[in-house]
Amino acid sequence: MTVECRRITFKNNGTDIVGDLRLPPGFREDGTYPSIVVVGPGSSVKEQAGATYAQKLAQRGYLSLVFDPSCQGESGGLPRDAENPAVRVEDIRCAVDFLVTQPFVDEEAIGLLGICAGGGYAVNAALIERRFKAVGTVVANDIGTAFRRMQPQAGAVEEMLVAVGRQRTAEARGQERRRVAWLPSPEEAQAAGVADPSLLNAIDYYATPRGHHGNRSNQRLFISDALLLGFDAFHLASELLVQPLQVIVGGKLGTTFSHEAGKALWERARNRRDFVVIDGADHYDMYDKPEYVDEAIAHLAAMYDDCLRPTGARVRDAS
Q1: What is the 3-state secondary structure (H, E, C) of 209-265?
Q2: Cross-sheet strand order for the sheet of 132-138
């Protein structure tokens, strides 16, 4: 049986957010279904890793919603290519606002899944959003901590903040906005002698037919970097993250810090479930490699089934 994919829009403070709502096989308008909001990696669009997980969750009977963030992909918002953690988190909460207006959504059975930086944004949203009843993460990362750790030398964070301030001043005086690339192109990586396997895997995913999509710009507004450096996705997790939490990480540590971030998040959670290690998987393998994604989906579905489909409250439809 097939999964229907509907293009939908919802608002975040007047900005049109464009998403894909996937309906499970056998879907009926007069049924009532559990649903999951899927938050993709930083810089990605709804057709990439988020779509992979959304499709597989829909095949297991869940409504799944994945969307382009404000200022990116097909969604509206200015300035383009902005990466604002506060706006990213509000996008997620607005996705719930959309779901609860749909008559076929069980508002007491809405889950959340975040991938990579989307995992950090998802957790941050769940801290204050009790309409999410269960939270799953796959190679979740706190993009703020990751950005701070990736700076090449002591004092680099301070230098970056000073540079952002100068750029904001320049733009306030009429100069063009400055953008930086999320990732180098394959040719740039080769010319620079990039040898880090995880970075090369990321480039392979985003810049080749394996995962490339034309709606992804690969550009980040430079002044966004101050917002990222000052962000802590897991702040207050030990106090406010009360939903059941499942954390899935790749077995290869790599250089993204997502394994360590996921472990730290799980240890801080008040209602933690499994900490799942997918043996042999690099961070970016978890975006699309079937053998790893399918294993993750099996664990996620078990958790969501327990939390969103308790005994005696399975999916209802008119059949």
Answers
A1: CCCCCCCCCCEEECCHHHHHHCCCCCCCHHHHCCCCEEEEEECCCCCCCHHHHHHHH
A2: 4-12, 15-23, 63-67, 33-39, 105-115, 132-138, 245-250, 272-278
pLDDT of residue 149: 84
**Spatial separation of the C-alpha atoms in residues 67 and 47, rounded to whole Å:** 9
Please tell me whether the peptide bond between 79 and the residue prior to it is cis, using omega within 30 degrees of 0: yes
Q: In the structure encoding, which two tokens stand for residue 24, read together?
A: 């499970």
Instruction: Classify 13 as helix, strand or coil.
Output: coil
Q: pLDDT at position 150, please?
A: 79
Distance between CA 137 and CA 129 in Å, rounded? 16
Q: Is the pTM of this model over 0.90?
A: yes
**φ/ψ of residue 62, rounded to 5:** -100, 140
Query: What distance in Å separates the CA atoms of residue 69 and residue 87, rounded to the nearest whole number?
Result: 8
> Distance of CA 231 to CAs 86, 146, 249, 269, 303, Å?
9, 10, 22, 19, 28
Burial track 121-149 (b if 16+ CB lie within 10 A, e otherwise): bbbbbbbebeebbbbbbbbbbbbbbbbbe
SS3 call for 61 = coil
Phi, psi of 140 (to 5 degrees): -65, 145
Low-confidence residues of the chain: pLDDT under 70: 310-319
What is the structure's pLDDT at 317? Answer: 36
Please work out, in degrees rounded to the nearest 5, the angle formed at the alpha carbon of residue 249 by the alpha carbons of 243 and 251.
Answer: 155
Phi, psi of 9 (to 5 degrees): -135, 150
**Structure confidence by residue, pLDDT tens digits, 159-192:** 999 999 999 999 999 999 999 999 999 999 999 9
Looking at residue 312, what is its pLDDT?
A: 38
User: If you compute the radius of gyration of the chain from its CA atoms, what whole number of angstroms results?
Assistant: 19
Q: Token pair for residue 174? A: 């009429």
Report DSSP letters for 253-298, one per residue: -TTS-HHHHHHHHHHH-SSEEEEEEETT--TTHHHH-HHHHHHHHH
Nearest CA to 93 out of 69, 77, 58 is that of 69
* Neighbouring residues of 59: CB distance < 8 A, sequence distance ≥ 6: 3, 24, 25
